[in-house]
Amino acid sequence: MINMQILDSNEIRKAANILKTGGIVAFPTETVYGLGANAYDQQAVTKIFKAKNRPDDNPLISYVSSYEMLYTITNDIPAIAAKLMKDFWPGPLTLKLKSREDVPVTITGGSDMVAVRMPDHEIALALINEVGVPIVASSANISGRPSPTMTKHVTNDLDGKIDAIIRGDDCKIGIESTIVDLTVTPPAVRRPGAICIEEIIESVGAIAVEGELVNSPGMRYRHFSPQTPLTLVEGERTRVLVKINHLIQNYQKQGLKVGVLACHESSEDIYCDEKYILGSINDLKEVARRLYSGLRFLDDMKVDVGIAEGTFPEEREGKVIMNRLRRAAEERFSC
Which numeric CATH code is attached to 230-334? Predict the structure, then answer.
């Protein structure tokens, strides 16, 4: 474990040396913890897939610390990409761009494209800069599990399976980056994330909001799921609460322990064994930041079944929250 709540150049060098010599390292970013390898080291990149039990046809994201480093993997920067970078980099926006012809398969995943972002986190940027080449990374968790937003999440999933974990603060955003595909016309949002679709439209005008493509990083398989079976109840709040309490009663009659993820405004009207308050319906950034911790809470409390309240608005951060809950749920009810 490398402790680094405060940036420490000596510890950065230790972690960078691990990456330079073929190791893999978990590190904090503003979105979720990442698990990275030297982008040019095929054997090291393979270790990421093995540690996560991640299918090898699920592509990774390349992290860069400068525009000079960006140009080593792509020289096709259309005007719309430049505008998005100006508005949102460094930050939680991943862009799919045409790769340079000499870029290795470890970066492209066998395609002619690269998914790249510049994180807004001093430890991540310092680590990439010290390595001197892009780092390819995925979230630092077992594939399919909720993404890690705290060091303990990484430790629970990957301790003993990777070479080092940089212990930083909890992730300030807690939701993955938005992925925008600039290799198609018109450009398309492939994964909703921390940058809202409305913000992207405000930046560059009309953009396609299409179905999530399976060849986008992290979108090919079921994702974000706790080990606890999760039921999502969507709809108008009053009807949703009636349905949730009805489900709780039925499960408890079967002798099952029930955990519920709810917003603050609903929590007092839900009667269950364990409860995790995601935050206020009026502060969706907070709900998004706490969402993955809530999903992991269900496992930590060893409940038999989880239920999530799905009353968040289908816009801005609410749209992203509902996307993640739907992908995590085994069963869904609409009220």
Answer: 3.40.50.11030
